[in-house]
Amino acid sequence: MYRALPYKTKQFFFVLLKLSIVVGAFYFIYNKLTTNNQLDFEVFSTFLIKTDSVSVKNVLFLMLFSIFNWFLEILKWRDLVSIFTKISFKNALQQSLGSLTVSLFTPNRIGEYGAKAIFYTSEFRKKIVLLNFLGNVMQMLVTILFGVFGLYFFITKYPVDISYHSSARFLAILILISSITFFGLKKKEVTIKGVSIEKVLLFFKNIPFKHYLFCMIFSVLRYFIFSFQFYFLLHLFGVEVSYINAMIVITSMYLLASIIPSIFIFDVIIKGSVAVYLFSIVGVNELTTLSIVTCMWLLNFVFPSILGSVFVLKFKLPKSVKS
């Protein structure tokens, strides 16, 4: 039906779609800030105003961390795409921030996959989806690796009431699901959206090792940047804690928050709940913790998604991509 429409009608609907995405993203941001059951926006803004350490200099310093965070993500994406086609830093910037805007209100950032794929012609879109999956998996792997160590030291250092029976049951279920998934992937006839698992595994196998290495390095550097940013906010809001002790809690928080499926717009709520629980054990009050989590969300997701909305509005469907 879409192909049968006149050209001007197609253009009208395309512009309407882009406007709807941008308006939808801004509405979700506004709604999240004004209807947050955990932290009232007036309380949050009053808390920031009363905090003596919040100055223009510190805000710029925090934003610089956010810029470096996304700078590394853009470099990571450009390197992954270079496996089959060369793109400029500008194109990688547009694709990364534009897809962030689209994914802001989709479950588990699923919209990012389609948003990045639409920047390319149909013959490349399946590859783009797989490369985006690889980048996200690498970032998750880094979160898990640091989080496991952090959670171990957190449990041994602080008094935490753990139900070992429930933990063992959860671990057993996780192992069972992983085993079923593993043996399912070994069957060559299994397909995902018409693509066999065998072809997907072959695609990842043929990726040169250097791209895996660069992807891991960029993911680790990003992790260090946004975790230090969280630590800096702790000190900014008057929490006296050493870097090591703070990282034990921060890595544990990111691990627990990451393994809980969520709609991305509610990601700040989940991180807030986990952070409040963990930081309360080390003596940080709820208002401070929730304010820091909200600041992290504003700096690393809201700010770049606003920039990304410009790229969404300027987006044009690709005509051809040189391989």
Automatic annotation (TrEMBL):
It is a multi-pass membrane protein. It comes from the Bacteria. Its main location: membrane. GO terms for cellular component: plasma membrane. The chain crosses the membrane at residues 12-30, 54-72, 129-155, 167-185, 212-234, 290-313. Keywords: Cell membrane, Membrane, Transmembrane, Transmembrane helix. Pfam families: LPG_synthase_TM. InterPro entries: L-PG_synthase/AglD. Coiled coil: none annotated. The keyword Transmembrane applies. It is found in: Cell membrane. This is Lysylphosphatidylglycerol synthase-like protein.
